[in-house]
Amino acid sequence: MTDASSEVVLTVPVRDGQYHLRSLPGIDNMWPGSEDGLFVGEDNWVAVLCGTRWGPVHLTIRRYERQPAEVDTTWEMAAEWSLDCSDGQLRIHDTYNSADPTDLEVPAGWSRIRLSVRGRMAASQAPEQLPEPIEHHLLEIWPVPDRLEPAVVHGPDNYAQFLK
């Protein structure tokens, strides 16, 4: 269940078509490849692949005590990833850490994230530097006892199919 204090709305700067979610410092593999057209990463970090090359993305974040009941299919695509958040922190930042990061408190241990997206294809066809967000993301976070495999739970969207 979520409550009003656990929802955060951000405008995230995108650089080179991505922004990052990081739970612990360090990257072992600089670019492991994307199986789903939405995420690239490891157990302690993930890059979110955006249609926006340079500019803002609107991001709503919801934290839950347990897995949300169902996937909202009004979004174009949704995928899930597990992150090792053993220090109880999740950092959201642009690719180069050139903007102020956002740090979120999460339960210490494994967290499951579900990212739902819309507008990635439209953003990819827009001018290079977007002044206002075209792309919208919903990040849902809840604790899990162990690492779970990444999974597309709705979609893929046209942009993910384009990337393949």
If you consult CATH, what is the topology?
Substrate Binding Domain Of DNAk, Chain A, domain 1
Number of strands: 11
Widest beta sheet: strand line-up: 1-5-10-9-6-11
**Which parts are unreliable, with pLDDT below 50 for 5 consecutive residues or more?**
none
CATH class division: Mainly Beta
C-alpha Rg (nearest Å): 15 Å
Mean pLDDT: 89
List keywords for this structure.
five-stranded antiparallel sheet, Substrate Binding Domain Of DNAk, Chain A, domain 1, globular, 164 residues, mainly beta
Condensed summary:
The chain has helices at residues 120-124, 158-163, and strands at residues 7-14, 18-22, 39-42, 45-49, 55-63, 77-85, 89-94, 102-105, 109-118, 136-143, 151-154. With 164 residues, the protein is mainly beta.
Describe this structure in words.
The chain has 164 residues and is mostly beta strands. The chain has a single domain, classed as Substrate Binding Domain Of DNAk, Chain A, domain 1. The chain contains two helices and eleven strands; from the N terminus they run βββββββββαββα. Strands 1-5-10-9-6-11 form a six-stranded mixed β-sheet, with no helix packed on it. The protein has a five-stranded antiparallel β-sheet with strand order 3-4-2-7-8, with no helix packed on it. A hairpin with a 2-residue loop joins β3 and β4 (45-49). The longest helix is centred in the last third of the chain and has 6 residues, at 158-163. The termini are far apart.
List the helices and strands and how they pair.
Elements: E1 7-14, E2 18-22, E3 39-42, E4 45-49, E5 55-63, E6 77-85, E7 89-94, E8 102-105, E9 109-118, H1 120-124, E10 136-143, E11 151-154, H2 158-163
